[in-house]
């Protein structure tokens, strides 16, 4: 990163920090928050954090003591990528994914840690319950009644392009330092997003290299930076990233591990908004402008406004999916869509 660009990011405001004394205080902070916040030392007492403070090798040994004998998916980048897991010049991926046993993956890191011969190795979003025994029980955050997916992310130094997630996210740094650069949800136009279907990990990502931003090619990125925040986290620290906030994530040390929790505030049977957006691209985006204006009006009427005029004239017993959704009526919509899309 050029010195001027490093200064540009260093000048960003820091993510606010909050102090939580216990699980009840964390629950209250999460319920009340609409902005990201950092909690220093939230998971400082984890055994995994203690192992990582001794060394990366000690952290890997601790993880191996809990792993299940299953194939893990690992992404292997090119040495010249400097850990940036991104596209190649042809808009394929600049990394390859293979399945391997965790002792073999960690053995490769053991032999090459800190050397230029070791390519970037990244194990992303590994389900802690499925792939480890006892790891979650010994290293977890009490999130109360939230039904959260617990995942662990491990690897050598990496740079993950700015992206967002639909669920809320509590990310806990267990081994190594991490830098998060965040932007509010509405800044998506200024982040120059790539394809929504051809992505490194399922979400559209910013095409901007944060280590060498090309402002001539991406001039609106300066506006995004005017709204950006940054946080550098030490082992034991955690950051809350609300749903839809954009975040660029860097693993800064020779070995890094992060545990994150995803949860949504609405029932899972409501489905994924991204799927509705993708379907709309196929069904509506390329219609004549006059027809698109009509469909935009109908989306406002049925989806975004959805006020009483939609159903006031229909007997309550006959409103079907226009009534507040339940698991049953959401299932009927899903079945209808599956039949329609299979034709």
From TrEMBL:
<protein>
    <submittedName>
        <fullName>Cupin-like domain-containing protein</fullName>
    </submittedName>
</protein>
<feature type="domain" description="JmjC">
    <location>
        <begin position="115"/>
        <end position="278"/>
    </location>
</feature>
<dbReference type="InterPro" id="IPR014710">
    <property type="entry name" value="RmlC-like_jellyroll"/>
</dbReference>
<dbReference type="Pfam" id="PF13621">
    <property type="entry name" value="Cupin_8"/>
</dbReference>
<dbReference type="InterPro" id="IPR041667">
    <property type="entry name" value="Cupin_8"/>
</dbReference>
<dbReference type="InterPro" id="IPR003347">
    <property type="entry name" value="JmjC_dom"/>
</dbReference>
